[in-house]
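=== Structure Prediction Worksheet ===
Name of assembly: unnamed complex
Input type: mixed (protein and possibly other molecules)
Chain count: two
Listed entries:
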Amino acid sequence: MRRTIGGWALIVLGLACALFGLVVAVLLGPDGRRTTGPHAVDVDGSVLVTAPDAIRWVDVKVDILVEVPAEKPVFVGLGNTVDVTNYVDEVQHVEVTSFGTPWKPKLRTVDGEQPTVRGAPTALDWWLGQSAGLGGASLSMTLPDEPVSLAVVAVGSSNLSGLKVTLAYGVKGGFYKGLGLLLAGLGVALAGRILRRGEPVLEEGAVEGDLDDVDVDEVVYLYVDEDGVEHQLTEEQIASGEFDVVAEEIVEVEEPEPEPEPEPEREPEPEPEREPEPESAADREPEPRYFWVDDDGVEHELTEAELADLGDEYEIVDDEDGEQR
Amino acid sequence: MRRAGRSTSAALTALALAVGLAGCAVPHKRGEGTIDKVAATEEQVASIYEDYREIRNAAIELLDPKPLSTVETGPVLAIDTGSFAVAQKLNRTGEQETGPVDVARVETPRFTQYPLWLFAVVRDSDRDIQKLQIFERATAVDPWLLVASPEALATTKIPDLRHDGSGHAIAIKATDKRGMAMSAQDAADAYAQVLTDPDRASSVGITEDAFIRQMADVAATNAALDGVTFSQTWAAEKVDHVLRTSDGGALAFVTLLRKDQYIVPTTRKITWPEGSPQQALLEDGIQGSSGNLNYYHQVLLHIPGGNAEPRAIGQYGGVVQGEVGFGGQSVDDTSDDE
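=== Predicted Assembly ===
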């Protein structure tokens, strides 16, 4: 009973894992990520940053491509929130306060006394990842386990008008992880099925190694004569020391296929008893035949009358096939 | 067949584990923790010291303190600039630091906002001292600058610091006096009062240490100059760098401004020994007027946990400014100079 419950639990768990893995693998695809964009972002100024708590995922691989028209110089970087917040402090900028997948950003404008940041972003050493270019820049990195903010900054005296953002996010090796989860789930489900049927998942002594790993049903000893003909020997012959065992070959015996689950025996249905029919002549017992065997071993058949005449002179014995002598 | 089923199950699970373990990182959401950052990584600290020594050696080679402004600031820069000015006037070259930098200990607290700073202990085996340094980054666009560097004997034991769960030293506010007889800022102010008037040591709760006695001796010597009116004042600046010690106390980096004023009559003249910083700044001495010499002293105060009195365990200082004529008075006296 307990095995059955455990088996079912494993089956359900395994199938759930397998399904989840399948969904992950299908959603992310072979490159392990989802891509969205390009999306236009309305930024008049020169700085776009994410709010301190906007990015909370860890170990997610993110690829960001920012594009601006007219070959304007642009920078994109990911840094610790403490650094980025201080960097844009008192600078007029647009802040991404929250973000929903696949592309649902909430923006707000933050007023500041300064139109742009104080130092060139490329000169700072605290970026965890950064990229700059003319007309566009791309950043690819895995989100670390610390509070981080993303910043898009127009370099020099330019601005971010006409900004377009393309975002891809996923899991490094996500497709294969999904596939792994699928396989693991199937494995667990199969183990659950075996458990439910009352079979040990690992055979007793299977971990002891060598011969213990192999099912040995019987040991057969063979003697090969000079002509190369094999003769089977008994264990007694081996034990007598007459023969030396010179080679051991382990032949795994294929296990018989599992028998189908025993179904409950059906109650025999009552059948109407038939009236006994009169016996036919063929069914009657054959009449006994009597033979007399002379000294030369020749048999002579006797009738019952002749037998009565002889009286006690002869002894009656039963024959093997039922005939009487 | 049964055996085949087991084998398939084991193979599938093993394959899945292998695929899964190929990349162990599993995406997850960060908890609702504080938004903060560690002041600097080990690599950054190494880079900070590499840059510092490179710039300092360049300044020593040029006998020009200007490059130092890219790696030092505040009182440390003022003290070093003063010593460089003295060296220039005396045409005396310094010695470059070419040996390996022995950074014996680095403490990098966590901060929720700028400024960021770190504490490091650097051993100077040539002078048999240890420098207790604070590097600070004021804003995200500023470089790391040395802002404090009191010195202690190599044998001086620096109190153990308390660390947070992630192994980082804990910085506290200068006004925080939990578990101590007084806050770091109060201790700095009290220490300055005692330096101004050593007799007040017991009344303000400061232990009279070697530095206080040394400064009191200097002041007494200057005050004994015949015909010269000497006065000395001390003031503590705002304390910015305090670390919690494991005894529940604190380690405070305190900067003190010392002002020495000499009022010398026309019949008198005071001068300083050849080659001294004071002589370099007040080349002609002081005669018939007043003269001021300003010093910066950086003191490392240990404020023990409980009710014990604070005391200094390290200091570094020097003259940073000298001027003659400010507030000068004529004094009718005929005694000789010095």
